[in-house]
Design brief:
alpha+beta; Sulfite Oxidase, Chain A, domain 2; Immunoglobulin-like; five-stranded mixed sheet; four-stranded antiparallel sheet; 22 strands
Length: 378
């Protein structure tokens, strides 16, 4: 049992007047598995998927329930961490954590989704990578200096077209390429944030502390964790993870000529009911979240169905629309009885993109935004 799970479980058992350590080993393990907010998809580096019931609410996902995805092992805490801004700049900068915190912060609530979320649900004979289902996603309030403000302080040169992001994590094998991403300068300036806080607390080390990039609307591979250097350049990075990795490669296709994985696709997930839930008098309440990286980043509508998609009704959207942050939805639906009874949700964003019944298969298992179908009892 990992330390995070142990602490969380101990607190909940204490509320019941119980001690986790006092339980027999078999019951201790069962209690941890039942109440842990995450499923362990990979032990090292840590890949933890949030259980749908722990995703949170229309506002945010708790830090200790937020999914974890790392390309390489989590680096040890830095004794003298600094952020460098270099490249095509007239005033190179080196800032420590206190200097960054002294800058005017901005706060942005944004949804972070792993590009491989849903990979394990694709109908593929073999897909490399973590077999995520639907919980490699979460929403948090991120706080720190705007990337545009840092670039302005460094006085970038007019030939700048891309911003490169370098991190402290590294592979254990020397022949493995480092993980490095770059994004267009306009996008970086419009949306980028160097996050120092997550949901009102210092950014946890598992989530990239002391500082990470937040890039609302794009999949998580662009949200560089353990940030150490920001470089501005005239060309995009030719790193392996840019040139060949994170591409929508059709089966048998070529990675170099395939389109890159960038903006999140419109998507929704049902958190209630869960598998096997029972309708009452043929009626059932459906709740969940919907998000997108397209258009202006807002959801126009969510439709739900209780008869296998033969008919749809419009769900109520909860709260105000925040660009590139999920929005809660709820609806009462009549469930058609039978062995295949199910409920479904389908999101549409402000650009008019509609969540598909089945997403197009690609070799990397990226961007699976297929409609969520939950089997229930009517």
């Amino acid at each position: 049992m990992d330390r995070r799970t142990l602490l969380l479980r101990s607190g909940r058992l204490a509320a019941l007047g119980l001690s986790l350590a006092a339980l027999p080993p078999w019951l201790r393990d069962a209690a941890a598995a039942e109440t842990s907010p995450c499923l362990e998809r990979n032990a090292w580096p840590e890949h933890w998927e949030t259980k749908l019931s722990f995703l949170g609410n229309a506002d945010r996902t708790a830090n200790d329930a937020f999914f974890v995805r790392s390309h390489f092992p989590v680096p040890e805490p830095a004794t003298s961490w600094k952020l460098e801004i270099s490249g095509l700049v007239r005033k190179p900068l080196t800032l420590d954590l206190s200097a960054l915190r002294a800058l005017l912060p901005v706060a942005r609530r944004a949804t972070l989704e792993c590009a491989g979320n849903g990979r394990g649900l694709f109908a593929l004979a073999s897909t490399s990578g973590t077999q995520w289902e639907r919980g490699a996603v979460g929403t948090a309030e991120w706080r720190g200096p705007a990337l545009a403000a840092l670039l302005d302080r460094a006085d970038i040169k007019p030939e700048t077209r891309y911003v490169w992001f370098e991190a402290r994590d590294h592979a254990t094998l020397p022949q493995a390429p480092p993980f490095l991403r770059s994004v267009p300068i306009q996008l970086a300036r419009e949306r980028g944030l160097v996050a120092l806080d997550m949901n009102g607390a210092p950014l946890p080390r598992l989530h990239g502390g002391p500082a990470r990039l937040v890039l609302p609307g794009w999949y998580g591979m662009a949200w560089t964790k353990w940030l150490t250097r920001i470089r501005v350049e005239a060309t995009p990075s030719d790193n392996h993870f840019m040139a060949k990795g994170y591409r929508y490669v059709p089966p048998g296709g070529d990675a170099i000529t395939s389109p890159p994985v960038e903006a999140m696709r419109v998507k929704s997930v049902i958190v209630s009911p869960t598998l096997g839930g029972r309708a009452v008098n043929g009626q059932m309440e459906v709740r969940g979240f919907a998000w997108t990286g397209g258009g202006r980043g807002t959801i126009r509508a969510v439709d739900v169905s209780g008869d296998g998609g033969l008919s749809w009704s419009t769900a109520e959207l909860e709260g105000a629309a925040t660009p590139f942050a999920w929005r809660g939805f709820k609806a009462q639906v009549r469930v058609r009885p039978g062995e295949g009874a199910s409920v479904m949700a389908r999101a549409t964003d402000d650009a008019g993109d509609v969540q598909p019944r089945a997403a197009q298969v690609n070799a990397g298992g990226y961007g699976n935004n297929s409609i969520h179908v939950v089997r229930v009892r009517a």
